[in-house]
Design goal:
It is a single chain. The chain is mainly beta. The chain has one domain: Sandwich (Immunoglobulin-like), CATH 2.60.40.10. Helices cover 14% and strands 35% of the residues. It contains 1 helix and 8 strands. The strands form 2 sheets. A 4-stranded mixed β-sheet has the order 1-3-6-5, with no helix packed on it. A 4-stranded mixed β-sheet has the order 2-8-7-4, covered by helices on one side. The longest helix has 19 residues, at 2-20. The radius of gyration is 16 Å and the shape is elongated. It starts with a helix and ends with a strand. The relative contact order is 0.23.
């Protein structure tokens, strides 16, 4: 019963946080790489939906809000469509999570990451998890 209440509370907080959002977000338009640019598309924690073409690369840059641990590494709901790739030049500051993906084929994918509250040892800690979700539409 206790686990059910915890799951319900986390679900309500996730929905409530998603309803208010951190911002309006934007829909970055893929553009050809320019000299020095490593990625075709960049998404941040304010973006909630993007469109890109098969073969393009995506960089996700997430900044942890104050009082929250860094975001987990974003996970693709379908790695055969949007696959994680290694970004050898990535080095993030504290509180910033960087990840890179390559669009392998046309389709729709969800990228998700979570973050938990920072809690001092021995102190009561709120029981919630922040959820970041990015819908990625990949065209041929």
């Amino acid at each position: 019963m206790r686990k059910l209440i915890l799951v319900a509370a986390v679900g309500l907080l996730s929905v409530a946080c998603g309803a208010t959002g951190i911002g309006n977000g934007s829909n970055p338009t893929p553009s050809p790489s320019s000299p020095g640019q490593r990625f075709d598309v960049t998404a941040t924690d304010t973006d909630h939906a993007i469109t890109m073409r098969s073969g393009q690369t995506l960089e996700v840059v997430l900044h942890a809000p104050t009082g929250v641990n860094s975001w987990t590494h974003p996970v693709s709901s379908d790695p055969s469509t949007l696959a994680p790739i290694v970004d050898p030049a990535a080095s993030a500051a504290r509180g910033v999570t960087l990840s890179a993906f390559q669009a392998r084929k046309a389709g729709e994918v969800d990228l998700t990451a979570t973050a938990s509250p920072m809690c001092s040892p021995g102190m009561a800690c709120p029981m919630y998890i922040a959820l970041y979700s990015l819908k990625v539409a990949i065209t041929p």
